[in-house]
TrEMBL record:
Residues 113-135 are annotated as: Disordered. Residues 28-101 form the Lipocalin-like domain. It comes from the Bacteria. It comes from Marivirga aurantiaca. It holds the Pfam family Lipocalin_4. This is Lipocalin family protein.
Length: 135
């Protein structure tokens, strides 16, 4: 039982450190180096140099995106708020009627100049995003 408590304590400490590190490293402008989606039907797509996303230290941000997914051109420019958890980030559009665009991402890789996040949608498709910090 003592080993179980020790492992739980270590896990909580690592989770806390990860969240603190992400909060410290995230503010700034990030280039979306790549975006990919693996569909549950086997269909997949990817895009590179999708645009930028800026995180301010007060929990707000903006994005400026332009990309093609499944052959369809998409643009997205909006303001958002974000919350950081133990190993995830949730991005919420600031428009009150836009709750369908709330998205949580699992932080797979958290480095000072690069991030890798994964998420799923309502249909089970898996999205992966790779960010590179701009100088």
């Amino acid at each position: 039982m003592k080993n179980l408590y020790s492992l739980l304590f270590i896990f909580l400490i690592i989770s806390f450190i990860t969240a603190c590190t992400l909060e410290r490293q995230l503010p700034g402008t990030w280039q979306i180096a790549s975006y990919s989606e693996e569909g549950v039907t086997g269909r997949s797509t990817s895009a590179t140099n999708v645009g930028t996303i800026e995180f301010d230290s007060d929990g707000t941000g903006t994005n400026d995106l332009e990309f093609k997914i499944f052959g369809s051109k998409q643009t997205d420019q909006r303001e958002f708020t974000y919350d950081i958890g133990d190993n995830y980030i949730t991005i919420k559009p600031q428009q009150e009627n836009d709750s369908s665009s709330v998205k949580s991402w699992i932080v797979m890789e958290n480095k000072r100049n690069s991030q890798k996040w994964k998420s799923t949608d309502d249909e089970g498709n898996v999205q992966t995003i790779e960010l590179k910090k701009e100088d």
